[in-house]
């Protein structure tokens, strides 16, 4: 066990992946000498060389498009998108090509490709550096979409994503990059918690909080605060946005009868809309209250001096919890 | 030139004074030179004004960097080293020409009359650009690399359709940006519609940690030929050459001859932004070598040597710059944060009932704390 920052855990996970399979390559802007703007790829080029850790030209469509080509020839590229807002020049390649090649080729082509995207706000950045575009990817059939929330998961999930034969959009909670957690560096990948499973990260009987990525920490903080008032909230880290591990969610909400969904993205047509609709459809007779969502407003991400208002905080989560108990 | 087929590493082009393709009118030592294609008649007064601009810009840039270090700005993109490229080119434009900048064009903004404190608002995080684009003919700073090159072309295409209007558009971007699809598509549109647009590339040698050679194995100005328009490489640390070349390009473009690419060969003396650490990827010796080509020092040398300015002039300019810095600092530290409900404004020109409801609900939520 080692206490590692989430970014460092990703770094070590990527290192393992490069060691495990000589076909794994990392490509992106500034991933080499600089080690990425968040240092997630720090030292990898030094140890694995410029052929395997490639500083690319500044062109996201180029990065993803050429990675697709390499994947078609048996390589396993891991692309880094520098910030969430810069994935869109590559969006056409991701949505129209990456997501559909397996399907279009009747299963004859495989595109084992990982696209790492630091996402979410809370770091006081300028515009286009704090986006939450996960729903735009989760909506696209053919893509697998995951979000890690802590160092231990980051370490294993990135390795599992690289080993996966389908394209994986890998969201990293950038404001949690520096948060430390215990990581078992020797865990065999077969023994690691499955990539596409949700996890109960705190047990409780009174209500279920659903969260992923940066919001998991928030949900846990809210649950701790609620416990002081005698409310036992269960917290589920969704981990895999697509496919969704519905069983874990279902099981919990049927028991608790109350559900609050938390994410940073705008609530309107957000990922939480899917969760809320499914919970309502399939747990209707167990529900004591409507499913509530806590998230961003229907506005572009605001200037950084206002992000504390945009981002859900413990107070807003507890406010929603109060409301699901008021029914 | 040796090329390794996989890594494609070649020795970086040495565009020093000896490079015949580099347009230079003032040597690093401050000697005036002529150029057959880009002659420049300029009064001493105007050279002094360019000097004054550059000193003010540098002082502003230093102050903003300090403000960032003190936590008053979230981040700052320094322009240090690129003063001549920006001041020279921007002073060649007419007020009605439309500028499409990136996030580093503080010198261009200065020449357009935008108060420097307004530029800081974006970096302080209180809005996304504190000036009226129509009033200054400067679009908001663009952070997504290369996106605005297309906007400049479209704007130019619109100008082209206005009878009697010979205004032009100019897009500023970096060497890294030339790799983006958007920039290449901008080149295609501009060439095919003969749009009145200048592409002004500040080749400051680095796109964060990635050197120019990783973006292009050939000199950037030569790209233009492949798209079908002229491209010129100018000494980006020579304010006179930048002025002359941009004037010539503007005349060419204004006359309906289609787009023009200027590559200002310069150097980013500072970090990419205040969050960056350039010691991880570039050598101190390179920075030292470029110091000898400082854009301000050479004008100073020229002005003193030719007797066009005396010690009093230089002292005055410095005092003025100092006053500017004080004013900017005072404005920055007293800038209030916007009220939380302002974040709901301007999402739609026509407003939206749904958004109004969200805003009202949030107002009520905030008010509940005051009552408590
Ligand atoms: C589409 C996009 N991708 C990535 C980034 C992150 N980024 C910001 S600046 C930069 C390098 C830009 O280099 P260059 O175009 O040479 O301009 P310079 O900053 O050197 O002036 C990168 C990669 C971005 N802002 N936009």
UniProtKB/TrEMBL annotation, chain A:
Which InterPro entries does the annotation name? THDP-binding (IPR029061), Transketo_C/PFOR_II (IPR009014), Transketolase-like_Pyr-bd (IPR005475), Transketolase_C (IPR033248)
Name the domain of life this protein comes from.
Bacteria
User: Which UniProt keywords are present, listed alphabetically?
Assistant: Oxidoreductase, Thiamine pyrophosphate
GO MF annotation list: magnesium ion binding; oxidoreductase activity
Organism of derivation: Acidothermus cellulolyticus (strain ATCC 43068 / DSM 8971 / 11B)
Task: Tell me what this protein is called.
Answer: Transketolase, central region
Does the record bear Oxidoreductase in its keywords?
yes
Report if keyword Nucleotide-binding is assigned.
no
Name any cofactors this protein relies on. thiamine diphosphate
Record domain Transketolase-like pyrimidine-binding: where? 4-179
TrEMBL record, chain B:
Q: Say yes or no: keyword Signal present.
A: no
Listed GO MF terms: magnesium ion binding; pyruvate dehydrogenase (acetyl-transferring) activity
Q: Could you confirm whether the keyword Cell cycle appears in this record?
A: no
Tell me which Gene3D superfamilies the record gives: 3.40.50.970
Query: What region holds the Dehydrogenase E1 component domain?
Result: 53-322
- GO biological process: what's one of them? branched-chain amino acid catabolic process
InterPro entries with a match to the protein in the record: Alpha-ketoacid_DH_E1_comp, DH_E1, PdhA/BkdA, THDP-binding
Q: What is this protein called?
A: Pyruvate dehydrogenase (Acetyl-transferring)
Native species:
Acidothermus cellulolyticus (strain ATCC 43068 / DSM 8971 / 11B)
